[in-house]
Amino acid sequence: MSLYYGKGDGEIFLIHDEESSVNKMVTCIDISTLYQEKRGSAIQMIQTLSSFKHEHLVPIEKYWIVPNYLLFVEMEAPDPVSQWKSFCKQTFTPEQTLNVLKQIITGL
User: Fold this and answer.
1) pLDDT per residue over 49-96, tens digit each?
2) In sequence order, what are the beta bridge partners of 15?
3) What is the CA 56 to chain-centroid distance, rounded?
């Protein structure tokens, strides 16, 4: 089931992990549109983010790469997913953007 798709944003899928009975969110990012050096930066960023463990961050459980083409990132899906989807599609005010950045920085 595709949850979200925006031109240039990649696509986000919701899958159910039968083994753990948990919903997972898989983001598919088309890295073929990036310059070669930016592809490496995107992969390095995912590798770094996957090492972060903090109560304010949803951890990246795993990622895999189709060389020079696609980057997949798997993490636990938020509950309920419908709130997350509407949150991602809203337009943020500068104050809301700063609040989100503050939360991210706190997590890092």
Assistant:
1) 888 887 777 788 899 999 888 889 998 887 777 776 677 777 888 898
2) 24
3) 15
Phi and psi at residue 49, to the nearest 5°:
-60, -35
> Tokens representing 9?
């944003």
Rounded to two decimals, what is the model's pTM? Answer: 0.66
Q: 4-13 contacts: CB < 8 A, separation 24 or more?
A: 4/85, 4/88, 4/89, 8/33
CB–CB of 51/59 below 8 Å? no
Report how far residue 55's alpha carbon sits from residue 63's, in angstroms, rounded to the nearest whole number: 20
Q: What angle do CA 97, 100, 103 make, to 5 degrees?
A: 150
Helix residue spans in the chain (DSSP H): 36-49, 81-89, 94-107
Burial of 31: CB neighbours in 10 Å, binned 0-12, 13-18, 19+: buried
Residue 44 structure tokens? 């390095």
pLDDT of residue 2: 47
Q: Where do runs of H (alpha helix) occur along 3-62?
A: 36-49
